[in-house]
Design goal:
By secondary structure, the chain is mainly beta. It contains 1 helix and 20 strands. The strands form 3 sheets. It has an 8-stranded mixed sheet with strand order 2-5-8-11-14-17-19-20.
Amino acid sequence: MKEQLVNLYFEIKRHYFQWRYPTISIAPGVKIAGKFRVEGGTRLIIGSGCRLRKRVVFCGSGEMIIGNNTLLNGPWIGCYSRITIGDDCLISDCYIVDTDYHNLEPELRHQPPGPKVTAPIAIGRNVWIGARATVMKGVEIGSDSVIGLGSVVRKSVPPGVVVIGNPQQIVKTLNVPSQVS
């Protein structure tokens, strides 16, 4: 009985947030246990079985897709292009941003952002991104990789590795069993 009440509570919350933010789609079975905010018309799809804890913020005008059974434990995600997060990921209180927000060229800095300002981010399956890490525009993170505490990820990361630091460094290759098709 208690489990049914808990599930009903999360289902009511899911419907409330879909009503409050008409640009999002939240699959059944998502558990929103913390604060949740969507800003700027972000188009957001959250897969089934996801858990949102602490304070999760999505902002921007892009499209975000979050796979099934992913834990979002307090991240701030800025999306002005496209961000995809695979199934079974652990995303801690980090920053994921697919934009610089401003043109870098001195003569264009006060102009509206141009096309070089944003680039999509793709995060593979079963990726763990640690606290205070930053994932920058144009990065792809391979499946089964780990991004360590406070790391700044500016370049793509291969599958099955541990990355730490600023600048990022691969410090370990994980023994990941290969998928049989």
